[in-house]
Design a protein that fits this description.
Largest sheet: 5 strands, mixed
Number of helices: 5
Helix content: 25-40%
């Protein structure tokens, strides 16, 4: 939005002159860059010594424990983050261990 307001004189004029356009653009500026949805990294796994539910927020998706934190957040907490790309077993392991969860992807 910022770039469009700077580079497009027509866009800037609409923003400056029309209150309803300004309200919509101001709202868009506030939400721009926020995650639009959450998905699961197909092979991203977080492993911990203790049950993950006691360390990070989690939810269960189709029988698999999933962190509500993304890969960067779990790494910042010092949890072991593994990427098992190329193997189909990551989700199966997470189904049977309270100390393992798949990684959310924002």
């Amino acid at each position: 939005m910022e770039r469009a307001l700077k580079e497009s004189s027509d866009f800037r004029r609409l923003y400056d002159e029309d209150e309803s356009v300004r309200r919509v653009i101001d709202l868009a500026r506030r939400i721009e860059g926020l995650p639009r949805n959450i998905s699961i990294h197909a092979a991203g796994v977080v492993i911990a010594k203790e049950p993950l539910a006691s360390q990070v927020p989690v939810w269960v998706s189709e029988g698999t424990l999933v962190t509500e934190f993304d890969k960067d957040d779990v790494e910042a907490l010092g949890l072991l983050k593994m990427d098992f790309s190329g193997t189909a077993y990551a989700h199966h392991y997470c189904r049977y261990s309270a100390s393992c969860a798949c990684v959310a992807w924002h």
